[in-house]
Amino acid sequence: MSKRFKATMVFVLTLTLYLSGCGLFGEDEKKKLDPPEEVSQLEEGESVETSDSTDDDSVTSSMDESSEKVMTELYLIDENGYVVSQTLPLPKTESVAKQAVEHLVTNGPVSNILPNGFRAVLPADTTVDVNIKTEDKMAVVDFSTEFGNYEAEDEEKILQAVTWTLTQFENVEKVEFRVNGYPLTEMPVNGTKISPDGLSRSMGINIDPEGVIDISNSRQLTVYYLAQNEGSMYYVPVTKRVSNIEGSNINAVVAELIKGPSYSSNLVSEFFPDVELLDTPTVKDGEVTLNFNEAIYGSFEEKMISTELLNSLVLSLTEQTNIKKVSVLVNGEGEIVNEQGESLSEPVTRPEKVNTVSF
Fold first, then answer.
1. Which Pfam family, any one of them, does this sequence belong to (predicted)?
2. What pLDDT digit, counting tens, does each position of 78-88 carry?
3. Do 350 and 20 meet the contact criterion of CB atoms below 8 Å apart?
4. Least crowded by CB within 10 Å, which of 75, 123, 160, 333?
5. What is the reported pTM?
6. Where in the chain are the domains?
């Protein structure tokens, strides 16, 4: 399903987008906290500092922790039941990984900053401990007994939310689940199996099984569609299965964005159904170049590309490990602008954080 959000309605963007070589989401469009506080975030390539003894998941800082905030991605559940990243300002701490998981607990510290329409994923009163095995890039999460007090329909969402929240940190690729010190081989309510090697983002998120006929001859891809809440739009990752005959992952991602989400999803895509790639995408030094037909302009008469369309494209393509930047051409030409009138002559990179919330 392909629909078009007109950008004429007035709303506060929770996303604060930049369309430049520095990324999509910029600082100048964020509202300042009241009272003003210093806000920082982990830079690209910066990790949660740990020791090989697995006793510490800390980051060191000479700054005053009481006055500084760290922008952290928390995977919460939206009103449609999707697991969605919301980037929120959390207090500066030496245990950023533990704090992130603690903010996934219902009625926990996230309550005062929880965006409207979203809820935490872990059962109330659950306590957590997080240790990082640096050598294995493994985060070991140890929950209290209250962890088992969830509804069956939330089981996979819990696995996805915890895994994707912790793997935002550069030195975490897998997550091991424990309860009271004992590793979980399956979830306590619905029995979902947990790999003894830990869970990673390869598990997918918001998995859409629609149209899957032959799992053995298909593969997973994660693309980003749009959802709307109280006049604001945000990006929702959806893992879909595509046939192995559909060509490269790049072509398959573009095809899924054009095809759009399932009709029952309450999600939309900015891509019109007549959008086409005119050439085979090329990749060099992590930069993919895409040459579209003029349908990529959508309803714009000028050589202008929708902000939301470009963001969905960049977020989806940079889920591929070999893609870091996206360059867009139309009929072989690069004289294109975004809705702010800014030139898109330079490649666009993935933002550090997605769906940044302003207060």
1. Germane
2. 999 999 999 99
3. no
4. 333
5. 0.82
6. 46-201, 215-349
